[in-house]
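Re-run with default settings, no changes from the original entry. Doing this only to confirm the output is reproducible before filing.
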Amino acid sequence: MTQIKKYPALIIAAVVLILDQLTKILVRRLIVPYHSIPILDNLFGETFMFTHVTNTGAAFSIGFPNPAVNRVFFIITTLIALGFIIYLLMESTHRIQIVAFGLVMGGAIGNLADRVIFGGVTDFIDVDFPDFIMERFPVFNIADSAIFISVCLLIIAMFIVKEHTPPKDEESPTQHTDSNLHIEEI
């Protein structure tokens, strides 16, 4: 089996990181914190808006009550997760995995940069899914989207990627012996 090149993951991570940080810079400069700007208001009403919020927790603002504890905890766990993702990337054998790891690295680094520099993650994509369980879906960003897409790709990869392992016994993998009779598997 030929070695699959891993550098596309770095390119994907860089693109996600740049898009994530550029959009967050624009949001911090153009939208007052905790205010919203409806997008295509005539078509969608308040279904799709840009809302400037800072999230000191994890997904859905889950975290510790103390923002300083949150910051340290999430910086450390993100660095550990990035180390694990890089290990998985080096071991990956399929292009879908390479793309997924690139997306998750870019997203994780984008949110990590916000935590280190600003003490929390800038979120701004605000979508209302009609008849959803919640009144409004939690506000998110490009990095969060990349991480979500990477999880979906990794789930798909679980069904596509087959690891080839050698047979456990000395018998041929395509034949079984039964009283001197050879039967080929279909």
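Residues 11-159 form one domain. The chain has one domain: 11-159.
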